[in-house]
Amino acid sequence: MKNNFILTALLTTSLSLGVQSADIDKGKDKGKSDFSYDPVSKSVVSKYLGKVFLIKGQATAYSSKGGKSQIKDQSKVFPGDKITTAPKSMVKIEMIDSTVITIAPRSEFEFAKWDYRKKSDRNGTFKLLKGRIRSHIKVKNAGKSSLDYKVRHVSMGIRGTRVLANAYTRSDKVKVSHVVVLSGKTEVYDSVADRKLKLEEGQEYISFLRPDGSLLRQTQSKLSPARIKELKAGDKNERKYFRPFVNYISAKNSSKVASEAEASSSQPPKRNSSRNKRNSKKKSWKKTLNQLNQR
Fold it and tell me: Do the beta carbons of residue 130 and residue 93 sit within 8 Å?
């Protein structure tokens, strides 16, 4: 009887350990599903390209395979995913190469292509379909690898910098692509204007398209030191706060570049313009009457 009791206890313990072992193995297999082996670099590479570490409001991820999911803190982002943000919602993503991408409210951003070997050796294509983003590329590319940000018809080839971008359609149906370089340098190509240029720290490029897709206007200018400091927002912790985005340019300010439009929006409107016109009309009327009297 005593021997049977000992045997039963041993069997129970063995079964228990077997279940725990099976659970551990399943956990390992589940973890391995996020990684693959790269025979070229002879290293284990992550299948996902980044994780969400800060979110406000609601955002949705659409996978290239047709799936749809609500984004939460620590949600993984995979190549081909498109992220959309609701009004008053923002998302911050830290990629495995240490790049931090912030997506503004009412925006659509697509991680179109991603080929990663190591932080300084990766190829990526990202598309801002609508709205605004910030991107802090902390590690420069080595060799022939490249990171391309497409803002509709304007693309940026980046090797290590901080950039902001806007893509939107104004009330007059004019399509605007707007890029700003806060630090470093970047090469810009406007496919509609067929123009290549280099932007340095504090410079911006804006391209306006008519509703039919033809080029309306393009501008390249430099932001004021005060505006650059404001956009950098170095006093805000990147891990805890959302830093500012570049403002939209309304149809009312279509003849001005962004920095001029933003500066003018903070100034009070001129109130005496109509009064001056009436005074000029009165003076001209009196002058004409005097001339008639003299005659």
Answer: no
